[in-house]
Amino acid sequence: GKAGCLGLAADVYRLGAALCYMATGRSPFGAEPSLATFLEWQPPSDMSPPLAALIRQCLEKKPEKRPSVEQLRAHNLFRGGDWTAVATAEPPGYTPHEQDISDLPRK
């Protein structure tokens, strides 16, 4: 990959993929993604236009065209969030269940 491809732009891309999955229950790229699906995502016909537009912006091919943090915070979906609390909150602890780790190699 290109140097500098990770970072905020990659996080925004992943946010778009996660929003799509939350809204539809499916990956935005289908079960067997092709290069074409990565380059131009098509929303389902029953998705709200504002949500589809946000996801499309987040999945923009060119990282510099993806929304900034400020633009995301200003979007209706995220407006009013307590971003200071989010930034300073301790992440919840996670203890995996046996079925989650049963296929991991053991030492």
Classify the helix fraction into a percent range: 40-55%
Give the SSE order as H and E letters: HHHHHH
| Total E-strand runs | 0
Largest sheet at a glance? none
| Coarse shape | globular
C-alpha Rg, in Å? 17 Å
Descriptive overview:
- There is one protein chain.
- It contains six helices and no strands.
- By secondary structure, it is mostly helical.
- The protein is globular.
- The two termini are 32 Å apart.
Summarize this structure as a short list of keywords or feature phrases:
45% helix; mainly alpha; 107 residues
Q: How would you sum up this structure in a few lines?
A:
This protein is an all-alpha fold and 107 residues long. The chain is built from six helices and no strands.
Summarize the topology.
Blueprint: H1 8-24, H2 35-39, H3 49-58, H4 69-74, H5 83-88, H6 98-101
